[in-house]
Amino acid sequence: MSDKSFLVDLTRCIGCRGCQIACKQWKKLPGEETKNTGSHQNPPDFSFITLRTVRYSEQVTDGKLRWFFTPDQCRHCIDPPCKAATNDPLSVFHDPETGAVVYNERTAKEPYQTMRAACPYNVPRQNAKTKVVAKCDMCNDRVHAGMLPACVKACPTGTMNFGDRDAMLKLAAERLAEAKKEFPRAQLVDAETVRVIFLAADDPKLYAKNLLADASSVPPRGPREYTRQELFAALAKPVRNILE
Ligand code: SF4
Ligand code: SF4
Ligand code: SF4
């Protein structure tokens, strides 16, 4: 089996949350008790039992009020900083076949705050009682059985796509070229460093806070800015230093 990736084409997302429900259903995770916070976003964030949530951002662009939806999940980083933050090499499985980054119950013994801080997308969440840490696992069981991840299968608009990485990168380039005709500022987000590649219709900062990798913990390094690859290496490095 070859390396897999998602393409999440945000120019097609309608915020219906079908993917969010499908994730709960496949993973047999309960709903959350939530309250109205003045936004349609619900649940408001990831948790140990919410591995996927659709984030809603209202913004004015070109004089018009627009909604920017982000169906958010773990990015399955090519070189995952969260795994670099662990002590036990068996608590996070980086599948050499699919590229999925999969947590197990051994994460209960890991330094949770260090793992979470290492993630450039603020994804891992801990169970307060058991201390086990959870996140999206790419539906790795389904993928190994030749099925699509549940969120991809459920999406009715073509936003969620999944397949061999080469095919997804090709599709990403095609969709980007198409999207630019209607959305001149369309761009791919962090495509070279993650396996969940977002195609944004506009500046990624208009979407959810963590659509772009958060570089805030990376120390300044002179006049030249980090490339994304260097950013990930730098994000993981302080964590490695702590552990060494
Ligand atoms: Fe780990 Fe975060 Fe990357 Fe997911 S997005 S693999 S949780 S570092
Ligand atoms: Fe949930 Fe599976 Fe989609 Fe991950 S790949 S967000 S676990 S449905
Ligand atoms: Fe709906 Fe698809 Fe967007 Fe999920 S990704 S909210 S299923 S359109």
Secondary structure: elements and pairs:
Blueprint: E1 4-9, H1 18-27, E2 53-61, E3 64-72, H2 81-84, E4 92-94, E5 101-103, H3 112-118, E6 125-126, E7 133-134, H4 140-144, H5 150-154, E8 160-164, H6 165-182, E9 187-189, E10 196-200, H7 228-243
Parallel strand pairs: 1-10
Antiparallel strand pairs: 1-8, 2-3, 4-5, 6-7, 9-10
The structure holds iron/sulfur cluster (3 copies).
Task: Please tell me about this protein's structure.
The chain has seven helices and ten strands. It is an alpha+beta fold and 244 residues long. The protein has a domain at 4-75 and 140-171: Alpha-Beta Plaits (2-Layer Sandwich). The strands form four sheets. The protein has a four-stranded mixed beta sheet with strand order 8-1-10-9. A two-stranded antiparallel sheet has the order 2-3. Strands 4-5 form a two-stranded antiparallel ribbon. Strand 4 (92-94) and strand 5 form a beta hairpin. One iron/sulfur cluster binds next to helix 2.
